[in-house]
Amino acid sequence: MNSPWPDRARWLGEDYLAAVRLQLGGMGSRIDPRRYRTGTKRPCVVIPGVYETWHFMREIVEHLHEAGHPVFVITDLRHNRRPVIDTAELVARFIDENGLDDVFVAAHSKGGLIGKYAMMKLDPSQKLVRMVAVATPFSGSRYAEWAPNRTLRAFRASDPVTTLLAAEDLVNQRITSIFGQFDPMIPESSVLPGANNIELPTGGHFQVLRHPTTLATVLAEAAAPREAVR
Fold first, then answer.
1. Is the four-CA dihedral 115, 136, 224, 37 of positive or negative sign?
2. Is 4 exposed, middle or buried (0-12, 13-18, 19+ CB in 10 A)?
3. At what angle do helices 110-121 and 84-97 cross, to 10 degrees?
4. N or C: fewer beta carbons within 10 Å in the chain?
5. In this structure, are residues 134 and 207 in contact, taking their beta carbons and an 8 Å threshold?
6. Residue 156 CB partners (closer than 8 Å, separation 6+)
7. pLDDT, tens only, 170-188
């Protein structure tokens, strides 16, 4: 959907303020994320985006935990700068080492690419039952063509991993992709063929993480029966 430029300008300003707030909040936080591992419902794993710590997804983490889900933060991701495949392997090892099964994944941006790769290539027994990916560049981003480093250039549509992920759709029916009307980092949008695609009535790349529809969808998908695949 094409949004008016005044709305885009407002969303852009609000989005960068949200990013600064989230980054500063993470730097000043002393929360031990292991506190969220209690609960009796389906276990959840969160995967943040590039250059992000888990604190960017703290609101999602707390909503899931308050609903009774044990939530696992993979602190070894640090700022999530490693390649998608390497990070997906780290996620798969974490799940195996912690004996997790019937897992729900909540991901942001690059985290959605990592989650999809893990579901496609590293999860033959389908321990990862479903994922909600927020603002994920499933088709790449044209802005990555001019990125200053390899970490960001990996989001080009022509990148081999991005191409591989876009070409394979077997797991897409287990993914919900949430995105805004305007994303300053992903002009192509985050539509994923065959997935449950939800466009929010707002814009941004970061502030969509705390939109009420995002939070409600995350809770609903985390609680959905394992066999309820679209």
1. positive
2. exposed
3. 60
4. N
5. no
6. 140, 141, 144, 145, 162
7. 999 999 999 999 999 999 9
